[in-house]
Amino acid sequence: MRQLFIALIRPHLEFANVAWSPRYQKDKDLIEGVLRRATKMVPGLANSTCEERLARMKIPSMQYRRGRGDMIEVYKFTHGLYEVESPLVLGNSNRPTRGHNLRLKKRPCNGQMRQHYFSFRVVNPWNTLPDSVVSAPSLNTFKARLDNHWAERMYK
């Protein structure tokens, strides 16, 4: 069931996560509901809590996957892996800052709607990452370090 979910269902749930990330809790609950129903179909796990089922099957929650996908895209923009202009603005590197030297600057916005755009919703999570994660030499190393750093929220 794990392989079926990962191969057939999860790609549909994750399609265009970076461009469209659910804003409302009801939309997030609908997406998580698909994962909950799929894990309940596994024999012997139906009476366990959702977190226990996810941990035993080693399937991260969809909320975790959305956040991870956002951080991967930020890594690609900040390390020049894309050949397009970045929608993200790096902070002033002349001033010493706490944390890492790739901190993002949060631009002002007037409306509620714009606060959920990619370039706004990723600033705080990215800026709170430690330097050892942000300064990873490759994308795969970044993913592994991010997973280790966020291990406690993987199945929630």
Largest sheet: none
Percent in helix: 40-55%
Which spans have pLDDT < 50 for at least 5 consecutive residues?
A: none
**Mind telling me the C-alpha Rg?**
17 Å
What structural category do the secondary elements indicate?
mainly alpha
The end-to-end span amounts to 20 Å
How much of the sequence is in beta strands?
under 5%
Number of helices: 8
What overall geometry do the principal axes of the alpha carbons give?
globular
The helix/strand series, from N terminus to C terminus, equals HHHHHHHH
Average pLDDT level: 86
Number of strands: 0
Written overview of the protein:
The protein is 50% helix and 0% strand. By secondary structure, the protein is an all-alpha fold. The longest helix is centred in the middle third of the chain and has 17 residues, at 62-78. The mean pLDDT is 86.
Overview features:
single chain; 156 residues; mainly alpha; 8 helices; globular
Brief characterization of the structure:
The protein has 156 residues and is an all-alpha fold.
Topology:
Blueprint: H1 2-14, H2 25-40, H3 50-57, H4 62-78, H5 118-121, H6 123-127, H7 131-134, H8 139-149
Helix pairs in contact: 1-2, 4-8
